[in-house]
């Protein structure tokens, strides 16, 4: 399985290290040709407005949207979650997303940088162990569609969701040494989805 | 489920999210919108861009809170603001306004010629300038969560930024080549704490994100700094002192992402109109050089 990390802007390096720790050899994706060469993709943390605009300028927006719609496994953290959402609130006017996940996400829902925090939360992958989650100007999910599974919450707000081949978290597991979420993406989301296609 | 704010990971992590991006100086909400539309990852709210501070002289201070709030209301991307070196009350004010990052900046007139702000006392993260590795490590020791190499702000002359990036990265490479028992003297020479020196020697990089700033005026300048190992760039006067700010801003964003692709940089450089006029750093009398402020 070839896994790419969208490398237009953001914490690409941290996602690459986390994926390597999970035993895959990731590549960076900045061009349509590089997108065509991968089976699964990670959308990193960063500025969702910047990433969406660069994707559009460099002809990645439509191909990426279409790959997602046709079943490519994708994991998005923070900005990546925003980019996967079908609907966003508190967004920049005309801000576009790749979509695919039937959720509504509120940008910067937890507040500004002074409100950014870390906390131990549950992640519903069958393990009872808590996960250290780092939230940076983080979004949360306000509405989930009927096929969307909520894997983590902070108070009542969903902060990790999955629907079929798509996984999104409002926090940044790539900033910690705990690679459970990346491993979950590879083993429980991407591999089964790709087997189904074959 | 205890939620902890202001941790090192949260502060440094915020800077990680800005990597590969351009942070632009803006003086009003309208410019902030232009920057956001062009793909800036953050804006730096200030009263006058460095070129004007230089031209008009006088004491340069923190911006008016009203102006910062208008910019915060106008854009969804992070808003940074500058405090004077050592002026911890300006920093407290900026934190209370909810700015996302504070730049303790040599571009403003220093408030303290001996001490910088004790940045550990704040929830908001700080970025500080550095001309060499020792200066960068002293700032990190005081709590800076992000470093930018200093250039000569407000000149449009990239040579100082270049010199300081080479200096910082050269010193990091040198540290990595030393024997472990030589790091004590290296720490003494760098005037930096041994623990940080050891960490840099082991990892071959700073423990925080390293951006670059000062004198960057064109897409090629931005790409040059990225190829020198910068994690991202600050562009100050270069955009809003040029003929066509919106187009130049977008072009610099594109060149920063594709810094290693000369074709993209060539396309981004076409038809941008007048760049900022520029001043050669060599023509500036020493007392007017901002990069030399910081201790």
Give a description of the structure:
The complex is a heterodimer of chains A (198) and B (295). Chain A is α/β, with parallel strands linked by helices. Chain A has a single domain, classed as Rossmann fold. Chain A is 29% helix and 29% strand. Chain A has helices at 12-21, 32-36, 48-57, 61-69, 79-84, 180-197, and strands at 3-6, 27-29, 40-43, 74-77, 85-89, 101-106, 117-121, 131-135, 140-144, 149-154, 157-163, 166-169. In chain A, the strands form three sheets. Chain A has a seven-stranded mixed sheet with strand order 2-1-3-4-12-11-10. A three-stranded mixed sheet of chain A has the order 5-6-9. In chain A, a hairpin with a 2-residue loop joins strand 11 and strand 12. The model of chain A has no long low-confidence stretch (mean pLDDT 96). Helices cover 42% and strands 13% of the residues of chain B. Chain B has one domain: Alpha-Beta Barrel (TIM Barrel). With 295 residues, chain B is an alpha/beta fold. An eight-stranded parallel sheet of chain B has the order 8-7-6-5-4-3-2-9. Chain B has helices at residues 8-16, 29-38, 50-56, 65-74, 88-96, 133-141, 159-176, 183-190, 194-203, 219-227, 237-240, 245-257, 262-269; strands at 4-5, 22-26, 42-45, 79-84, 101-105, 126-130, 146-149, 209-212, 233-235. In chain B, helix 10 packs parallel to helix 12 (245-257). The A-B interface holds A 7-14, 30, 45-47, 49-50, 53-54, 57-58, 78-79, 90-92, 95, 107-108, 111-121, 134-137, 154, 172, 175-176 and B 1-7, 9-10, 13-14, 16-21, 36, 39-42, 75-78, 95, 98-101, 123-125, 250, 253-254, 257-258. Chain B: It is an enzyme of class 4 (lyase). Chain B: This is pyridoxal 5'-phosphate synthase (glutamine hydrolyzing). Chain B: Residues 9-213 form the PdxS/SNZ N-terminal domain.
């Amino acid at each position: 399985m070839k896994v790419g990390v969208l490398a237009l802007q953001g914490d690409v390096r941290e996602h690459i290290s986390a994926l390597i720790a999970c035993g895959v050899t990731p590549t960076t994706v900045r061009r349509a040709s590089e997108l065509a060469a991968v089976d699964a993709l990670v959308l990193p943390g960063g500025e969702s407005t910047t990433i969406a605009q660069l994707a559009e300028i460099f002809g990645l927006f439509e191909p990426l949207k279409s790959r997602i719609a046709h079943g490519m496994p994708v994991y998005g953290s923070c900005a990546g979650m925003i980019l996967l959402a079908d609907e966003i609130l508190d967004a920049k006017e005309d801000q576009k997303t790749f979509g695919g996940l039937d959720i509504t996400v509120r940008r910067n829902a937890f507040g500004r940088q002074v409100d950014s925090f870390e906390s131990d939360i549950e992640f519903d992958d069958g393990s009872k162990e808590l996960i250290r989650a780092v939230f940076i100007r983080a979004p949360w999910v306000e509405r989930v569609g009927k096929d969307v599974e909520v894997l983590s919450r902070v108070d009542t707000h969903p902060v990790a969701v999955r629907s079929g081949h798509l996984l999104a978290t409002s926090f940044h597991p790539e900033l910690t040494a705990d690679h459970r979420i990346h491993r979950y993406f590879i083993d429980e989301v991407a591999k089964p989805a790709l087997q189904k296609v074959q | 489920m205890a939620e902890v704010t202001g941790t090192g990971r949260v502060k440094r992590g915020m800077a990680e999210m800005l990597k590969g991006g351009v942070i632009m100086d803006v003086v009003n909400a309208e410019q902030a919108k232009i920057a956001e539309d062009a793909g800036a990852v953050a804006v730096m709210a200030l009263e006058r861009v460095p070129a004007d501070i230089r031209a008009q002289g006088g004491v340069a201070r923190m911006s008016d809170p009203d102006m910062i709030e208008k910019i915060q209301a106008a854009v969804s991307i992070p808003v940074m603001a500058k405090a004077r070196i050592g002026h911890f009350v300006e920093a407290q004010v900026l934190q209370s306004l909810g700015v996302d990052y504070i730049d303790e900046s040599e571009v403003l007139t220093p408030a303290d010629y001996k001490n910088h702000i004790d940045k550990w006392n704040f929830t908001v993260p700080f970025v500080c300038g550095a001309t060499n590795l020792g200066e960068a490590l002293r700032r990190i020791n005081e709590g800076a969560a992000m470093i930018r190499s200093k250039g000569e702000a407000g000149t449009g002359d990239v040579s100082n930024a270049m010199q300081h990036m080479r200096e910082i990265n050269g010193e990091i490479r040198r540290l990595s080549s030393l024997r472990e028992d030589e790091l004590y003297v290296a720490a003494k020479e760098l005037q930096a704490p041994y623990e940080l020196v050891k960490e840099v020697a082991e990892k071959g990089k700073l423990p925080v994100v390293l951006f670059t700033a000062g004198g960057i005026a064109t897409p090629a300048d931005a790409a040059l700094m990225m190829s020198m190992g910068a994690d991202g760039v600050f562009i100050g006067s270069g955009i809003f002192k040029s003929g066509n700010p919106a187009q130049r801003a977008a072009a610099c964003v594109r060149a920063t992402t594709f810094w290693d692709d000369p074709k993209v940089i060539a396309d981004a450089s076409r038809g941008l109109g007048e760049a900022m006029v520029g001043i050669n750093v060599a023509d500036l009398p020493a007392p007017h050089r901002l990069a030399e402020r910081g201790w």
